[in-house]
Amino acid sequence: MSFIDSSFNVEIVYNFYLKFIAETLLYLRNFILYISLWIAGYLCVCCVVYRRYARKLPTRIRGALGAKRVLLVIAHPDDECMFFGPTIFRLCEQGAEVYILCLSNGNYEGKGNIREEELWNACRVLGVPEGNIYLINDTRMKDDPKVQWPVQVIAKLIHHHVEALEVDTLVTFDRGGISSHPNHSAVFYAVAYMFVEKNMPKRCTVYTMDSVNILRKYMGFLDLPLSFVLSSKRYFLRWTESRRVTRAMKQHRSQMVWFRYLYVIFSRYMVINTLRKINLADIELELEVDD
After folding, report:
1. Which of 80, 84, 96, 110 sees the fewest Cβ atoms within 10 Å?
2. Which InterPro entries is this protein grouped with (predicted)?
3. Rounded to an integer, what distance in angstroms lies between the CA atom of residue 192 and that of residue 232?
4. If DSSP codes are grouped into helix, strand and coil, which group holds residue 41?
C-alpha cells in the first residue's frame, strides 16, 4: 500500500511541475509577444514623427529659438559636439551668429594645447567662425571633477561676454550637467547666481539643455517622440545632417577612445537637443530643491 501511495504522490508532483512549466512558457510567450508589439508600435511612431517633423518642416521653423546672437557656454573642449551639436548646427543654418565660450582648455590629461586646436577644428566643421570662439585658461577652473569651480568668477566671465558681444540668447547646461560632471553644473550655478544678483541683462533669453535619464540618453533617434512631447524647444537633425556633428566630434582625436565611439553611435545628443527657457522663478525653484 505504501508503494502505491508513493507512486501516486510522485505522479501528482510530476503533473504539477509539467503544468507549471507549460503555464510559465505560455506566460513568457505572451510577454515576448506583447513586448514585440510594443516595440514595433513605438518604432512606427518614431518613423511617423521623424517623417512629419524632422524631414518635412521648413528649416527656419524647425525648433527655432528666434535668436540672432547666441552665446553657448561650455566647460571643456568637445562639450560643443557631445551635447550641443544639433543646436549649433541648426542655429548656424538659420543664420544666427553663434559664439562659444569655453571655460577651460581640457588639460585634465595634460593635453590642453592639443584640445584647444581640436576645439577650433570642430567648431569650423559645425559652422562657427574661428573669431567667435573664446577659450578661458584660468588655473581656478581646471578640467577636473574634483575641483570646485568658483561660481562668481564664472558669472563675471559670462556677464562680460554677454555684454561685449551683445547677445540676445544664452545657452548652457542645466543643473544636472547632462553627464553629472561637476564642472558642467558649475556653469549652471553661475547663471543662477547672475539671475539672483540681477546681473542677467533683460534682453538676454536663457535656455538650458535638458539632462535626461540614462535610458533616454542612449536611445538615439528613438527618443524623438518623447522629446517632441516633453519639450517645446527642440532641435532634430536628419540622418545626413547628424553626420556633420559626428565629423566635428571626430576632430577631437585625443578624446576618441572606444567608449566615445559608442557614445557617437547611440547618444540622443548627437541627433536631438531639447532646451528649456528659464527665468528667476525657475532658478529659485531649482535652488530650493538643492536645499
Report:
1. 110
2. GlcNAc_PI_deacetylase-related, LmbE-like_dom_sf
3. 22
4. helix
